[in-house]
């Protein structure tokens, strides 16, 4: 009658020794050599502990209906201005002009977040005045939610000048996030949820562009309006207003952050394990050679072959 092999299992030999023997010291050294070198190799190969990571998120941006506008002219006054700040307007009564402002925000993909901000500003200009430059600041509420819950007041600064008298400036661009330091991986961050322009101040220097920019640049998190193709249009008619128009887009951002503990461990463990498996494989071969050939003395317990033979009787 034919006999078929239905199942197989290895015979396990046990090698025993007392504590203070060469065999025990060899087993301890083999264990340490198996687990420590992979750790050193993974660490020295750079990138074992990730210090920074990144993700993509579209910010939640809303225009706060706050504007500071200066139009530089060729008249004796040199400029005309207007803002949404009452104290600034009182300080600049001699140069104050009231513009016509139109603006709207659009959520084109209907995901609950605004995608762009469109604006048009018509500043009254006298026929004897020529416009050679413009500076305008828009203030926004800027928020992130995915990892660090960032809340801050941000701004977009638009500026352009020309030797030729202008009739209109059109500037389309993106409101880009700028990070000097990575964000945290979780928690509420309201460090910069404070006014960029102090509307309660009664001092003219607090509304100057140099003071505003100097204070804003001290932040680790800021925004910048980037427009690659501003268009300066000439040929303004007599008594026609100077028009500033454009669109500010809120793009999806690549945000750098400091990963949390479990993310660091998960990433480091994968690198360690990949090297550890190789050392385990090699060290098992070394231990098998040493113990089977009794290079270090041990007591060998082998399973009785008769026990297995009884299964076939």
Description of the structure:
With 313 residues, this protein is of the alpha+beta class. The protein is built from five helices and 14 strands. The protein has helices spanning 22-44, 86-91, 209-216, 261-292, 305-309; strands at 14-16, 53-57, 60-73, 79-83, 100-106, 116-123, 131-143, 149-179, 188-189, 221-226, 231-234, 242-249, 253-257, 299-301. Strands 3, 4, 5, 6, 7, 8, 9, 10, 11 and 12 form a ten-stranded mixed sheet that branches. Strand 3 (60-73) and strand 4 form a beta hairpin. The model has no long low-confidence stretch (mean pLDDT 89).
Give a quick precis of the structure:
The protein is of the alpha+beta class. It contains five helices and 14 strands. Strands 3, 4, 5, 6, 7, 8, 9, 10, 11 and 12 form a ten-stranded mixed β-sheet that branches. A two-stranded antiparallel ribbon has the order 1-14.
SSE topology sketch:
Elements: E1 14-16, H1 22-44, E2 53-57, E3 60-73, E4 79-83, H2 86-91, E5 100-106, E6 116-123, E7 131-143, E8 149-179, E9 188-189, H3 209-216, E10 221-226, E11 231-234, E12 242-249, E13 253-257, H4 261-292, E14 299-301, H5 305-309
Parallel strand pairs: 8-9, 8-12
Antiparallel strand pairs: 1-14, 2-13, 3-4, 3-7, 5-6, 6-12, 7-8, 8-10, 8-11
């Amino acid at each position: 009658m034919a006999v078929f092999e239905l199942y197989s299992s290895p015979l396990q030999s046990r090698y025993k020794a007392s504590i203070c023997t060469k065999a025990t010291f060899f087993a301890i050294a083999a264990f340490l050599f198996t687990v420590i070198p992979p750790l050193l190799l993974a660490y020295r190969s750079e990138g074992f502990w990730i210090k920074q990571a990144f993700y993509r998120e579209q910010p939640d941006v809303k225009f706060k209906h706050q504007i500071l506008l200066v139009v530089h002219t060729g008249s004796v006054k040199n400029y005309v201005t207007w803002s949404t700040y009452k104290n600034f307007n009182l300080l600049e009564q001699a140069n104050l002009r009231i513009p016509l402002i139109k603006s709207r925000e659009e959520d084109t993909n209907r995901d609950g977040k605004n995608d762009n901000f469109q604006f048009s500003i018509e500043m009254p200009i006298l026929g004897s005045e020529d416009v050679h430059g413009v500076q305008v600041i828009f203030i926004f509420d800027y928020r992130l939610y995915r990892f660090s819950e960032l809340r801050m007041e941000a701004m977009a600064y638009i500026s352009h000048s020309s030797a030729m008298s202008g009739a209109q400036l059109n500037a389309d661009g993106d409101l880009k996030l700028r990070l000097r330091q990575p964000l945290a991986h979780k928690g509420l961050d309201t460090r910069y949820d404070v006014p960029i322009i102090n509307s309660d101040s009664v001092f003219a220097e607090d509304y100057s562009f140099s003071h505003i920019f100097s204070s804003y640049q001290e932040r680790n998190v800021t925004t910048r309006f980037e427009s690659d193709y501003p268009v300066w249009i000439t040929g303004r008619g007599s008594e026609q207003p100077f028009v500033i128009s454009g669109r500010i887009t809120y793009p999806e951002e690549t945000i750098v952050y400091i990963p949390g503990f479990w993310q660091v461990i998960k990433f480091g463990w994968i690198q360690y394990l990949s090297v550890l498996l190789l050392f385990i494989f090699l060290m098992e071969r070394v231990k098998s050679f040493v113990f089977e050939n009794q290079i270090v003395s041990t007591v060998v317990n082998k399973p009785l072959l008769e026990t297995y033979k009884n299964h076939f009787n």
